[in-house]
Write a structure and sequence with these properties.
156 residues, two-stranded antiparallel ribbon, 41% helix
Amino acid sequence: MFGIQVKLTATPKRLEKATDKGTYKTLRHAAFSIRKSAIESMVFAKGPSKPGTPPHAHTGRMRRSILVAQDDNDEVFVGASGNRVKAGRRPEWLARMLEHGGTFPIRKKRKIRGRPKKDDAPQATRTITFPPRPFMQPALKRNLARFHHEWKGAIS
């Protein structure tokens, strides 16, 4: 007759560390896959793209503005950075406008000679309407199917 004795030792710290490592690696990989897919969907071409298709890349600034950030709560953010878009002399809401479409106010620049006074009229605004040209949502949808496979074996 055989006698087998099994002793289980709970190692919550090791399990937590392995889970954190697997989560970090898998989430980052997923985020960078979405980023790459969004960037590749914007092709270099002249003129605007058709509504409902990803926007055309004219200079590549919008493509370079797509960043990935991960915080301490294991949340990953993928999208265009307003600061990077603005640095290219474009409004910071440009990526949001392209993704969702809509009506946006545009301030008309006024040339004032001399020093502006307190009673000067504010800048006139006009609105522009754009149809949506999504690039982030389709990138997420293209990559969503393969993410659950990456979670298998992520904790080792």
